[in-house]
Design goal:
- The protein has helices spanning 4-7, 28-55, 59-64, 69-94, 98-101, 104-117, 120-132, 141-151, 153-164, 175-196, 210-245, 259-271.
- It has twelve helices and no strands.
- The longest helix is centred in the C-terminal third of the chain and has 36 residues, at 210-245.
- By secondary structure, the protein is mainly alpha-helical.
- Helix 10 (175-196) packs antiparallel against helix 11 (210-245).
- The chain starts with a helix and ends with a helix.
Length: 272
């Protein structure tokens, strides 16, 4: 187990330089507030959409939303920012986040969770605007706002975590988890057709051609892998630029530079 944890991004002791709860440019308090605001916005948007659907005689749209990858990913973003804000606030108050006190299995889960929220929102945005969007703007302000929130702001939220935190590039071992999650969603989509008689996305209908269906599925899978690689590279460059070139190692909860622990962490990585 001790050999597997570093491969999965959960070396022990976990996150010694507080990468998950600090930013290279924002103080911990502002980082925690930003994450909390994002969580509040996401959950407010979700429940407002539910309320709007119910008030306009379409409650089934809210029920069926759990069959859409977009909606599931948006819920995931909300819970990520909720928990990451709590971890950051706890680090701010005690100098050690709740995440660092969690069992190793949950630390691995959080590391994988982080990888999904910097990868899947970009995939959702790309697929929606490149494949699903008709090219004509939405007929109502509500539809424009709800689609922008779920298919554009989701990537803005992901970019915040990619560019402004101190996280390390996601381990390559997380890539199989992304593939498994996409496969599980594909199973859910076809289960939805069996139980509710509709496909969440029209391109999943095999009646439109098995070759076309395979092309979409493999194309989205390939896009997810490419996005993972691009995000990995961006985070690596951000870390190299801010820390190695600009010496912006972030501030701890006590407003002291975290360079000493950072240098120890980097030295340990070189010894692996």
């Amino acid at each position: 187990m001790a050999r597997i944890l570093p491969i999965l991004g959960a070396s022990q002791p976990f996150d010694p330089s507080h990468r998950y709860t600090t930013s290279w440019i924002l103080p911990p308090l502002l980082l925690a507030i930003c994450r909390a605001v994002f969580a509040i916005y996401i959950f407010t948007a979700i429940f407002f959409i539910f309320g709007w659907n119910g008030a306009h005689g379409n409650p089934e749209q809210s029920r069926y939303s759990f069959s859409f990858f977009t909606s599931l990913g948006y819920w995931g973003l909300g819970f990520y920012f909720l928990f990451s804000s709590l971890h950051t606030f706890s680090y701010l108050g005690t100098g050690k986040s709740w995440l660092q006190r969690w069992p190793a299995a949950l630390q691995v889960a959080h590391a994988v969770f982080y990888t999904t929220i910097v990868t899947f929102p970009i995939l959702v945005t790309g697929v929606f605007w490149a494949i699903l969007y008709s090219g004509t703007w939405f007929p109502t302000s509500f539809q424009g706002w709800s689609n922008t929130s779920q298919h554009a702001l989701n990537t803005v939220f992901a970019a915040f975590e990619i560019f402004l935190t101190r996280t390390s590039p996601p381990p390559p071992a997380h890539l199989p988890f992304l593939v498994i999650l996409l496969a599980l969603y594909l199973a859910l989509a076809y289960l939805t057709h069996v139980t509710a008689s509709f496909y969440p996305y029209s391109f999943l209908d095999p009646k439109k051609g098995s070759g076309k269906l395979a092309g979409y599925v493999l194309g989205i899978l390939a896009a997810a892998c490419v996005i993972f690689g691009i995000v990995w590279g961006i985070i690596w460059i951000r870390r190299w630029l801010t820390e190695s070139k600009l010496a912006m190692h972030g501030k701890s909860a006590k407003n002291t530079v975290v360079r000493d622990e950072e240098m120890m962490e980097m030295a340990n990585e070189r010894m692996k």
